[in-house]
Every structure is written in structure tokens, then in C-alpha cells.
Amino acid sequence: SWTMANVVDEQVAAIREQIGDRRAICGLSGGVDSAVAAALVQRAIGDRLTCVYVDHGLMRQGETEQIERDFVAVTGADLRVVDASDQFLSALAGVSDPEQKRKIIGREFIRVFEQAALDVIADAKEHGETVDFLVQGTLYPDVVESGGGTGTANIKSHHNVGGLPEDLTFTLVEPLRTLFKDEVREVGRRLGLPDTLVQRQPFPGPGLGIRIVGEVTRERLDVLRQADAIAREELSAAHLDTEIWQCPVVLLADVRSVGVQGDGRTYGHPIVLRPVSSEDAMTADWTRLPYDVLAKISTRITNEVAEVNRVVLDVTSKPPGTIEWE
Ligand code: XMP
């Protein structure tokens, strides 16, 4: 629409005005909001924006490549990918408690991002430049919820071994502050971002780490990633991916059940499908997916993912269930 075309032009102008000839940094999460915010800023200031993507190893199949390859191809953004999966997995070793996992993932994320930001600042400094701005994909509902404030962000340095703790202070750039989610998707489309990114369903920051009930390991992540990819593939083949709010796929890694395959007994793990319908994720109902789609997903997962011998459907509304299992 005309309005969205105006939004792009107006935001690009506003960003140029705010940042001038200085530099900015943006953390990409793999989600729609940070990608669209970064694409707008890239259009406004080009290579004076550096994007940082922390690969925590907890993303779904193809998502990291989508940012590394497709996002960069479309926007031409200067992207630094930090592969921190080893660091996240060691920090998560032996941990099963959901809140603990969330805390650890959040803490490691800040550490890695902060180090990346320090590196970007050090590189800029070599050219006599400073990095003063942090781009964030804050949407209108977030602005309302947080009381409308804006201004600066402070990243406190925790692991600055041998030196004084250094506070990194940035002025925030929030080009999506006046927009709702569907408007952000429209802006993203206008900026040429692929549908797979623009139509992406909500996905939690801690990623697959909170979709494995039990300890998170590389092997378990691989199992869950395969099952999740099959579910997503079949949901989009049935054109249901844009109908439902989201469909977490959960691996019950601490549960085993007996099965039979070929002429052998199996003792594998269950996968839970959690398709939900919702307006805002505050409440949700379980989606009555067509039986034939469920059957296809179940058959494929149990055939194609060796460690899984059972697929179950979560038929709980929210409340009392949450959308995620952890
Ligand atoms: P629950 O499980 O609380 O989830 O019903 C509500 C919505 O929030 C998403 N979710 C998260 N998103 N970081 C996020 O960015 C998180 O830690 C997180 N936990 C849950 C969830 O996918 C659902 O859309």
C-alpha cells in the first residue's frame, strides 16, 4: 500500500537524520523484527551499520543460513556471524530445569553479543570512528507495554578480564516503534526480504533449548531439528503455516516408550506437536489440524528420525498450558 511505501521512505530519512555520518550496530535474532529494522537502517546508512548474529546453536534447520545468506544477499548488510554453539552447549551441560536453561542462555547471549560489540567498536576505532547507535526492532505494542520510554541502552561488561569493567552506552535507533506486526511484515516485503523470513512465526529467544524436555545436547538438538523441519514442511505444504499462530515441536528427551519397527523393538523418544491458534499469545487454543496432515507429519517423523518412535498431539488450551513446554 501507499502508506507502507511512505513508511519506508520516512523511516530511511529519519534514520539518516538521527545517525548522520556515524556508525551503528544491530543484533539480528533470526526473527522478523530485527531483520526489518536492520534492513531499514542498512538502506539509510549502508555499511556504517554492522549487524551481529549470535549463533547459539539452538536455531531450527536452515534459520542461520537464512540470515547468513538470504538476508545478506537482499540487503547487502555487513554481517558478523559469531558461532558460539560450543559455548552455549557447555554452559547448558547437565541442566534440565527450564528457568535455569533460560537464565544460562540469556547470560551467554549477552556475553557473546557484548564481546562482538567490543570488537566492532575496536575496528571502528582503528579508522578513528565511534559506534554510537544500537538498532532495535521494538514494535508499537512493546513501546506501549513499556510505558513509551526511549533513549539509551547500556551493556555492562562482565568479563573484561584484567581491565576495568567497561560500560558500553548506545543511543537507541528504533525504526519500527510506530508499527504493528503485520505492518512490519509489509515493510519487510517492500525491502525485498524473503517470505520465509517475513512470514516467520514467533520463535522464542532461547530457541530449541526450551523445546527439549531434559538436558540440551548436540545430538538431541539434531533429532529435534529434523522433526521440526518435517512438521514445518508439511504445515506449509498444506498452507496451514500462515493460518496457525505457531506450532512448537517438542522433544521429550527424558521420556522413552516402546515401539516396533520392521521386526525389531524400539525404545525411542516422543515428539510433541503443539499447534496453537491465538491473537496475541496471551491466550491460545489448540488448533484442530486436519487428521491427514497430522498423519503425514507423524508418519514422516517416525520414519525419517531414527530416535523418535512416537508422535503425540498437545490438546491443551492456554491457560492452563503455556504455548511452550518450558
Ligand atoms: P508461552 O509459552 O509463555 O509463550 O505461552 C508465549 C509466546 O512467547 C513466546 N516465548 C518467548 N519469546 N523469548 C521470546 O522471545 C522467550 O524466552 C520466550 N518464551 C516464550 C512463545 O513462543 C509464544 O509465542
From TrEMBL:
Annotated residues for binding of ATP: 29-35
Domain of life of the source: Bacteria
Keywords: ATP-binding, Glutamine amidotransferase, GMP biosynthesis, Ligase, Nucleotide-binding, Purine biosynthesis
EC number(s) stated in the UniProt entry for this protein: 6.3.5.2
Keyword set includes ATP-binding: yes
Pathway entry: Purine metabolism; GMP biosynthesis; GMP from XMP (L-Gln route): step 1/1
Name of the featured protein: GMP synthase [glutamine-hydrolyzing]
Source species: Modestobacter italicus (strain DSM 44449 / CECT 9708 / BC 501)
Gene name in the database record: guaA
Residues of the whole record sequence present: 197 to 522 of 522
